[in-house]
Amino acid sequence: MSRLKQLTKDSVIYGIGGVLAKSLSFFLLPVYTRIFTPADYGTIEMLTVLSSFVGAILVMGMDSAQSMYFFKVKEEGRIAQARIISAILQWRMIFGCGIVLLATLTAPLLNAWFFDGQLGWEYFAIAFAGALFAQVMSQSAEVMRLLYRPWGYISITLTQSILAAGLVLIFVLLFDQGIQGFFLGAAIASFVVAIVGWIRIREYWQFDRIHWDLWPQLLRFGAPLVPAALAIYFMSTADRWFVQYYHGSEALGIFAVGAKFTMLAVLVVTTFRQAWWPIAMDSMHSDDGPETFRMIARLYMGIACAGIVILTYLSPWLVQWLTGPEFHDAWPIVGILAWQAVFYGFFLIASAGIWKAEKTYLNLPLMGGCAIFGIILNWLLVPTYGGEGAALATAITYLVWVIATLVVSQRYWKVPFQMRIMFLQMVLAMVYVAWFVLVSRGGAQWIDLITGLVMIIFLLFFSVGLTERKALWARLGLSRVT
User: Fold this and answer.
1) Res. 480: pLDDT tops 50
2) Over the stretch 312-336, which tens digit does the pLDDT of each residue have?
3) Which one, out of 222, 260, 280, 351, has a CA that is 20 to 30 A from the CA of 119?
């Protein structure tokens, strides 16, 4: 019971803090889209994608290794835990500096391929160094999480977001640093907050020597996780690579702004994933587990599809209100790309059998295969259809990933999902998105509003089964269920 109370309290804190940290960049869109041109914003997005790849290499599964061994050596005392934490930090600093240096040496090639030779090497150096500083900062925050200090964790991540935003505006507006100022502000913020974070957990330092002896053990645990991390990275970012390559920075800037508005869906899905995961783990080992998954799957898909309809209908207004005039063409991306977040959230439901049977190694071929499928799909769609084709390719990639995962998962643990109902829910929402984007073109006519409202009511009504509706009607004092 005490653990349940701890989980509930921490989940609320992490949820609120995570939403605040992630939503900050969204609410800065009115500023960023007026101080950066679409081409500038596209360059920022592509450099961010490249630095994220460097970050995925830098992690090397060490975040999972730290969580694993921190508690494994708990009985040996704080000194043993400090050795684990210090060994990982030392690895990050030594290995990380080498990776940043190597990545920076590739700057001329990357500059020629993606930026037409317009950027200096220092842009890449600052962006890649910022990725390293972010990893070091993130480790201090993760230690806070392991110590059950949620407010400490949130204070680190939220401070970094606020400080980065402030420094970016200073460098760009006051010192006229442009794109370089964006990455310089983020890098300095991560560096400063990393120092503060590590000072706050200084009792877990042990730098009397370099802990070479622990690296093989930590790498044996963490390194096998890297391919899966890279697979999900390419599933999520292949669209950016292809838009930049075929249509240039300006098209990518418009695409990136449209993708920012899907953050509204991502925040909701992230909250669901954090709340659902402990319940899912418990349900997997309960007699009513299959029924719980069956009910949640239908409820999730219905509510998510209704949310897609709402977000799609509002997308033209949201983009016009919150961005500069040059970015107003980004609205069609929103309704299409929002499916990525929906399917990502549904993965934790679809993969139940894999987790229950402890066959998590199957995630790698599933993700790897879908990453290759996504690259091929982007190659086919982006040259002709641009950003909308890229958004569609990513959405289909995640749909295929979920379907493949569901098929495999059902072999290990049979859950009686209501496939027909969920299929109908998705089809209705997809048809509305297609109509609004391709036919209505965001005209927001009365037919769009009325059709959307009817679909939302239908989707929400059929999100729960007859039994649940009867219980709800009874609570409301109604004896008849229609």
Assistant:
1) no
2) 999 999 999 999 999 999 999 999 9
3) 260
**DSSP 8-state secondary structure symbol assigned to residue 258:** H
Q: From CA 463, how far away is CA 422, in angstroms rounded? A: 9
**Residue 117 burial (10 A CB sphere; 0-12, 13-18, 19+):** exposed
Cα of 35 vs its chain's centroid, Å: 26
The tokens of 210 are what?
Answer: 């370099």
Q: Give this prediction's pTM.
A: 0.87
Question: What confidence tier does 173 reach under pLDDT thresholds 50, 70, 90?
Answer: very high
Amino acid in the structure at residue 240: R
Instruction: Tell me the H-state helices in 285-330.
Output: 289-322
For residue 472, give the 3-state DSSP assignment: helix
Q: How far are the Cα atoms of 3, 48, 137 from residue 180, in angstroms, in the given order?
A: 46, 12, 21
Alpha-carbon distance of 154 to 135, in angstroms, equals: 16
**Chain centroid, CA 108 distance in Å:** 29
Q: Locate tokens 């020597």: which residue? A: 209
pLDDT of 47 above 90: yes
Look-up: residue for tokens 């063409």?
Answer: 329
Q: In this structure, what token pair is assigned to residue 241?
A: 């690579």
Per-residue pLDDT tens digits for 125-165? 999 999 999 999 999 998 988 887 888 888 898 999 999 99
Burial per residue of 15-48, b for 16 or more beta-carbon CB atoms within 10 angstroms, e otherwise? bebbeebeeeebebbeebbebbbbbbbbbbbbbb
d(CA 4, CA 15): 16
